[in-house]
Amino acid sequence: MLILSNSPHIKTKDSIAVVMWTVITALLPAMCYSIYIFGSSALYLYIAGIAGAVLSELAIRFLFKKTITVYDGSAVLTGILIAMNVPPSAPAWMVVIGSAFAIIIVKQLFGGLGYNIFNPALAARAFLMASWPLHMTTGWHKFANGSVLSGSVSEFFGMPQAAFDTISRATPLTALKEAPQIAENLGVSIQTINDMLFSNEVIYSLFIGNVGGVIGETSALFLIIGGLFLMIRKIISWHIPLAFIGTLAILSYIYYFSTGDVDPIKGVLFQILSGGVILGAFFMATDMVTSPVTGMGMLIFGMGCGIITFVIRMWGGYPEGVSYSILLMNALVPLIDRFIKPHVQGVK
């Protein structure tokens, strides 16, 4: 049989389902480790996120009398990413609502997969942050002796137990943002807090994954492994992750070198490994629908994400800026694609 189609005539074995389930496979190591670290609460949130996204897509597609598309894995991936963007102790009902918002409002009302302007999971995170900020900023896991931020090493940094307990209840980025207030309230120097946050122990722990944060920030190691897997499978390219992480690294080095408060190299590692940088750079900023189509456009997109993340972290009201940086750059993608076009060969 002959197939009649418009050019370009490109054949590939990849499909939407293959791409989506491959990304889910790449996330499995980080998912399993987060369940190991945070326990059954993380598992329940994953289940809630997936169930909320799949059921919402089934309902809205049925209501609009459109083809059921839940088998392609896009709704499952959205539910997983939403769960990865909430604290381990967040209520399951909140994750279900966030998944419904992502699928119905951000994805399907814009026309379905391929037509949404913003990354659905990140838009849902912003929605949850605005609606239930207490749940989104206080539901952190309470580690025992398994975390470098536990009381077992408090004496090493020369801080009273009360100060150490205050810091260990927050994420590293929150502790860094609130360091002046913590120092004033508990009678310790800011330099002492910096020495702890930028210590080898904390940086190693950020890499392995036994510090506070949202579920998806658990382990930079497993997220990097998943990201490299996607690159090898050619599901994503290197442009956005390298531009995002590289820009943040350069700006962080310049900042810490100029201030002289901490070792610039440790400052760079802290900024890259903490928060949602690795998750965002490899798994969310690279979303095919909401990112540019050209290599140069991807580099500009990634650089913009890195700049905005750095600015929000250093001078913004929130300790983290990854999600907002990607959403803001999502809005600029049509403009980037319009002005960054490949050169047409053979034409003056």
Characterize this entry briefly.
The protein is mostly helical and 348 residues long.
Question: What report would you give on this structure?
Answer:
This protein has 348 residues and is mainly α. The radius of gyration is 21 Å and the shape is globular. The chain has helices at 16-38, 40-63, 74-84, 92-107, 120-131, 133-138, 161-168, 172-177, 179-186, 190-197, 200-208, 220-232, 239-259, 264-273, 277-284, 295-315, 322-339. Helix content is 64%, strand content 0%. The longest helix is centred in the first third of the chain and has 24 residues, at 40-63.
What overall form do the CA principal axes indicate?
A: globular
Separation of the first and last Cα atoms: 39 Å
**What is the string of SSEs from the N terminus onward?**
HHHHHHHHHHHHHHHHH
**% residues in beta strands:** under 5%
Radius of gyration: 21 Å
Number of helices: 17
Q: Helix content range of the residues, please?
A: 55-70%
- Average pLDDT figure: 87
Largest sheet: none
Ranges where pLDDT stays below 50 over 5 or more residues in a row are: none
Our count of domains comes out at 2
Q: Please provide the count of β strands.
A: 0
> SS-based structural class?
mainly alpha
